[in-house]
Model the fold of this input.
Amino acid sequence: MRERTRHLVAALTGLGLVALGPGLAPGFVLSYDMVFVPDPAFTRLTFGLTGIVPRHVPSDAVVTALATVIPADAVQKLVLLAIFVMACTAAASLVPSERMAPRLAAGVCYAWNPFVAERLLLGQWALLLGYAALPWAVAAAARTDEPGGGRRLVRALIPAAIGGFAALAVSGLTALVVALVTVRGRGAVKVVGAAAVLSLPWLVPGLLRPGGLPLDDTAVDLFAARADTPFGTLGSLLALGGVWNGETVPSGYGTPVIASLWLIVVIGALAAYWAWCREPAWRRGAAVAAGVGFAVAALGAVAAPVLEGLVGLWPGFAVLRDGQQFVAPLAVVVAVGLGTAADRAAAARLPGVALAAVAVPVFLLPTLAWGAAGDLRAVRYPDDWARARRIVDGDPAKGDVLVLPWAAYRSYPWNHGRRVLDPLPRYLHRRVVVNDAVTVGGTTVAPEDPKAVRLAPATTSAAALRDAGVRYVVVDAETAAHRPAGEVREVLRGRDLVVYRIDGSAAPPGDGVPVAPAVAAWAVTGLAVAWSIGVPRATLSLPLLGSIKPRSRRTP
Amino acid sequence: MRIAIAALVGVLLAAGASFTAVQLANASQKDPVIKPLYNYGSR
Done:
């Protein structure tokens, strides 16, 4: 590793440590979609074989594999820290300068902005994994015509591939645009091929699920970008914010003064990119990708009928519903632009300006620090949960687990009331059925799990659940208010959790997703990854870190 | 030595920010329990 890269990693690891703050304490950070559990196991759910939409594939499998070596809570902290360090290092590697401060400015800006804060609070660590490596994907996509370009591209897309569906959609679209602009047709074919092969672990079970791709037009409005600054939806997206969920905007962000200052920084960075970042091969490609990403991000907000029409045409376009995630390439351009501006300032013997460029993202968004101002705190699962797992997993009799209350998200008191996707499907090693319909405000998106759809009318009847193959009913919130009517046996009652057993339950029906194609998909993807990193004298990290060689002379 | 200085700068930078963050968070006095209980969020 180059000396300067070591400095960057050291400095930005410190930044990441303080950003996560109390989230680094022992235990798990549980926030919205971020669910990590102790001792996760490889189950059909891990590989998306339960019939639900496999948005968690292959990220859950990678976490489970890592958790076989080190404790799962340590895995979570390493993953979160890796996002910060990787984002900083990747963005810094794009700045065409040998100086430290400009590279640091780009790294800090890329890892510390409203996009990262909002997505982190929303718990979308898998998306952020792809975001962190996006600058490498940009650089690799622009060099697909060089010898080893295909391998380099696959390597750069590995973090996004681990992130899964959303992460690969963002990185794949960005890389495709960059390749089309810089190396034209052949490069684009390579990008599509690489993205397709890396998508197989979630694409195959997704296509084979009995319900097919889900279709719900209401979700376009729910997940469209929204204004979180006084500058409207488009202004908020330009400032790299605009996430659909109003609850995941960092405290203090969006006030007129802070938002105005940050928008000035962003516009200044874009101007610097346009004026001074002229030579790198990816310059035009990244700019066009940022424009395309911005247009896609705004689509649901400014032209919802168009997006609804696209989703109606092919449900796969549903990936565009949560539009704000597509401003990620714009964040790359903003970060590189800020770094370029800092380089010009340093060249003009204005070191104070260069250092200010390093610090400005942190000072304009201070509430990302300390676990997003304390929102991302590590908690321990209650002891009742461990007791429930011993009972349920220790039972040799077959049967599914049903979770009540009949809703997907929880605000547990032991998690400081913070919303989180119910962890029980990952916590227990049986097939766990939860109502995966999500409610935003007063609108509910239809459930996607075929078993949840089938069991919805039967959740209050022990007899109906028995016939449907449910052996346990676990109540993990408002425990006094939920109990199936009929013959059930209470096997655990705690303050945080109650477990009922239904004796004599029928054999549970299968989930209908065949295993063999999924195994083949993993094998093909695994071979592609092995091929990409199997370059002589290469490791996974070093070629990535060194993929962009800073020019020997400075930016004019 | 330069690595240590770089790390220290990173920590100091974020420590100042975290102090401000805690002050802001305390000032906001946000209700820790988000209602309604079973929602994914609100726009």
